[in-house]
């Protein structure tokens, strides 16, 4: 019973973290100044095809799963299936939060308002990542790919993360330039997110991760 209670708490924090993370991504999309590296390819596909961001999020994550398969030369059916299911949930949340953002918040018509939304998106994404990472549950394909890059090329995790982000942004930029003749999903907001989200999540973790983990591991059946 203790294990069951703790797992439920972890699952709650994990799902809530994913939802908050997609809310932050939706805010960055609404700001229109460039989305974070993790969503750059998905949003580029949306701009090119007019398909919903939720569906393109799943498609982009399928690409990340295939890249993992190529790099590891191993098809891990169970792991990739779980990653795909998480991607579908993440895509659904992205569609929902983007719709909510567009329905509730005023359209950012001035640069000041766009910057406010962008800054807000960074702190919301950081909060979502706090829950998602602290729950210690399955990683999304993009994050799992970072570990694969690290192991395959013997990179430090931070270097692997930067490598993955840069490649994702470059692919998204090229796709937009070739098809819609603009940088599309890439902007100065992308650079700001790449630099600051990690610092924000680090700040959150120093304050809240230990109490959050303690709560998840504490069972009412103790």
Could you explain how this protein is built, in words?
The radius of gyration is 18 Å and the shape is globular. The chain has helices at residues 2-31, 37-49, 53-72, 77-104, 111-134, 141-153, 157-179, 188-217. The chain is mainly α and 222 residues long. It contains eight helices and no strands. The relative contact order is 0.20. The mean pLDDT is 90. The termini are close together. Helix 1 packs across helix 4.
Keywords, separated by commas or semicolons:
globular, 222 residues, single chain, 8 helices, mainly alpha
* Major sheet characteristics: none
Mean pLDDT: 90
Q: Kindly, what is the distance between the CA atoms of the first and last residues, rounded to a whole number of angstroms? A: 9 Å
Helix share, percent: over 70%
Strand content: under 5%
Give the ordered list of helices and strands. Answer: HHHHHHHH
Rounded radius of gyration (Å)? 18 Å
Tell me the number of strands. 0
Low-confidence runs of at least 5 consecutive residues: none
Shape: globular
> How many H/I helical runs?
8
Structural class label: mainly alpha
Task: Compose a concise summary of this entry.
The chain has 222 residues and is mainly α. It has eight helices and no strands.
